[in-house]
Amino acid sequence: MTDDGTIQEKPSSNDERIDEALLQLAAEGAPLTHDAVAKISGVSRRTVYRRYADQVELRKRLWNLLSPPGGMPRNLHDLLDRELRETFEKFDRQAAAMTVASASPEGRQMRLEMKAERVAAYSAIFGPHTDRLTEEQARKAHAAMQLLCCGLAWREMRDQWDLNGPDAAEASAWAVKVLIAHLDREGAQAFDVPTPH
Asked: pTM of the entire structure?
């Protein structure tokens, strides 16, 4: 049953029921196990195992359900022009699961399993703007800008500033654009910024 009292239609396929179970477990902060998915979805444990051989695969599927519609960003223009807004809007639609997943041990493990792919993608799109920095400075710049584009930024802006997904995306895109403009303008001196009074 939904919040407004209407009966929610049960997903028809096994895959849809497994997806719903994964989202429900994430929203509850519960461990993602094959047994739990089978129990909630009404799908046999064997069927869950056939689709997802281990917990890593279950977490990867959950990440795909919660993650940006197109996966990791491929270019900076699309990320700032529309993908960030689409991603944060998706987070709004799945707020319960996103909020808990961003704070739970299971969610942290899910994010860590995507680390190499995430670091590579963001380094590739930010790299042309940090190529005059030292390697250590570039890593710090990439980390700061990537943080503005992730679920943790969405959650904090939602919880602390009452911003919805589109507004949070606009704020994040603005901040990344300001940082990119500064990096392009200042080059190797980009980290030499005086502290404001």
From this structure: 0.83
